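Record format v2
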Amino acid sequence: MTTDPTHTEKMKALQTEQKKKTSEARDPGRGLILVHTGNGKGKSSSAFGVIIRALGWGQKVGVVQFIKGKWITGERQFFAKFADQVTWHTMGEGFTWDTQDKDRDIAAAEAAFARACEMMQSGDYDLIVLDEINIALRYDYLDVQAVIDGLKARSDRTSVILTGRDARPELMDYADLVSEMTEVKHPFKAGIKAQRGLDF
Amino acid sequence: MTTDPTHTEKMKALQTEQKKKTSEARDPGRGLILVHTGNGKGKSSSAFGVIIRALGWGQKVGVVQFIKGKWITGERQFFAKFADQVTWHTMGEGFTWDTQDKDRDIAAAEAAFARACEMMQSGDYDLIVLDEINIALRYDYLDVQAVIDGLKARSDRTSVILTGRDARPELMDYADLVSEMTEVKHPFKAGIKAQRGLDF
């Protein structure tokens, strides 16, 4: 059970390298823009996980949901208990195949984005999640340049996470972080139902 | 502002297809195994987001952290308030480059996995998160077949999420869902510090 000296040496070198990187890193002086995209699971749920981190530090959070409609989800039931720290707006009308009305979908997306802009400029939030906004951009319900302008006009205090598959390249260019969630294997494809607590 | 009839038709067809898929899907009769891997951001945070969903439905959750040590994170501060619903064990000793001691790392991983097995077999949890366990597998601190055997022995009630980069292929074979988070762009690479509320 003696400790491997080669391992210790390697780890010391790695530690030095990590410390150097960390000490050289700077504070951005402004909230960051994060994009979660791809066809895999985890885009919205990781945004909810980041909300938890923010709440753990006593920060204020806003959420605008662009697509999801009024059905009950675990996350909405949960965050409803934190109304003093989390402002939650579900402004979608549901899936495009359920609304079947493009004008209505566009109006809903525009109203949601107007609300998002107010919140981003207010200076009241440390973190704002624009959930599924990439879907609204993909269908041209929103103009990508207008969305980037809205992000640029945010308060310095505010970081923003934008979720949804097929994120626009212009948006990824502007973002500080882009993470792509790729589906390697999915139970729904194997004929398994969406599960309460896991999927919604 | 008339509604586009082609759009409506297309959406009707899509709705029919979605309804068919949903109605044919079956209940798995057992908790699912989910793997979050890849080099990008969102593996642990999306597991925390799924915890929120589970809590929103009144479910019981367990977390075992295999690598992260005792430093303070937003998520730990937050979930500490839900001790009646969330059992949280941080059993790592920190990054391998900080411990610099392989025997100690292995002992920590084995103790964490023994705890995880007890929890998975207990029948007390709807969801268990084995955070960063893939790192322990990657360094051979744990044996992949032993981990799969542990998962197989879980209570039918219990779903398990395993996080960390470089997930073992054998584990991905056994899992019901695999989502790979890929780093497209990262602020740390651009010299920006890890941010409280976003990164920890």
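Residues 102-122 of chain A form the longest helix (21 residues).
The domain at 40-180 of chain A is CATH 3.40.50.300 (Rossmann fold).
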